[in-house]
Fold this sequence. Notes:
Layout: H1 2-27, H2 30-40, H3 47-56, H4 63-71, E1 78-81, E2 84-87, H5 118-153, H6 158-172, H7 175-186, H8 194-197, H9 217-247, H10 250-257, H11 262-274, H12 276-283, H13 285-299, H14 305-314, H15 318-346
Antiparallel strand pairs: 1-2
Amino acid sequence: MLNFILRRLGIMLLTALCLTFIVFFLTNLEPNLEKLAKQQNNMRMSDEQVASWLEKNGYRKPLLSRYGEWLGVLPGWAWEVNGKPAGRCVRRGVEDTPTYCGVLQGRWGFSTVFRDEVGTIISKRLGATGWLMLWVMITMVPMALVIGVLAGMREGSKLDRSLSTFSITTTATPEYVSGVIFIVLFASSKYGLSPLFLERGTLLKGSATSALDEITLVNFALPVLTMAIYGLGYIARMTRASMAEVMTAQYIRTATLKGVSFRAVVIKHALRNALIAPFTVIMLQFPWLLTGVVIVETLFNYKGFGWVLVQAASNNDIETLLGCSVVAVLVVLITQLISDIGYVYLNPRIRIK
């Protein structure tokens, strides 16, 4: 097991380097750099002024060299302005200037949009998105497993067809469509269910901005429900397929022929084996939730990780985009590692060579 984990960690490291380098290359293309120079100075800058600014700020160095500086394995660029040090590693109010100041040292750069350290921005917004992901998983996973198990217990029955249709419908409906439907149903004072139960106001809020200060059912239910409904169908379908396959196994037939009750067969024999495959699918929902919140957070004005990503992409905030890519890559790789290790423990038939 230790060798397996070490090999996986090595592959994770290489994958992280490759993916972050690709993102670094794409965000540092010449048009993006020229746009950044004009945003930081004057949109009417001449080509000579743009070239001078890029040279002064270290953007004309070789790509691999700049990637090494951003990563923190090469010394950060520096120069002097009027006898005072300036450069990537220089921080206001701090006299000591470190030689290395990249991601590995905890220096993720400075945001040109939010005017703050990228690490500070991402940690704050990632915490807000973490609460959203937590409540989505608490809502989505139990519902999906129950639907999948019930559908797979009696394959081909009316219950199976009804639950399967519901699962396919939820997965096929985009989040921005279901989100708008939920807003009309629960957060509109003129339409939907609110006018039927309340004379004034709405049952739920269509904006989740207040949830950043205090999470309540009223301000947090709609974004959670929108994401949970969309992801529910996929897990339910995988669980249903796994459950249906297990119910046709020989040991299930043997237990049934011995007179074991159907309930005991399902709970004691089929359920544990049927939930092995959905475990991997459930773990893969974490990366999806982290990147999938972009639409939901924008729709419900919830300023989390997805909102930061949209703002950074819209305003050519290169450092913030790079920081978001690091977080996304780490979440994907870590959840895949946990999924692989968990699958080995859950399924004794798997042997690590």
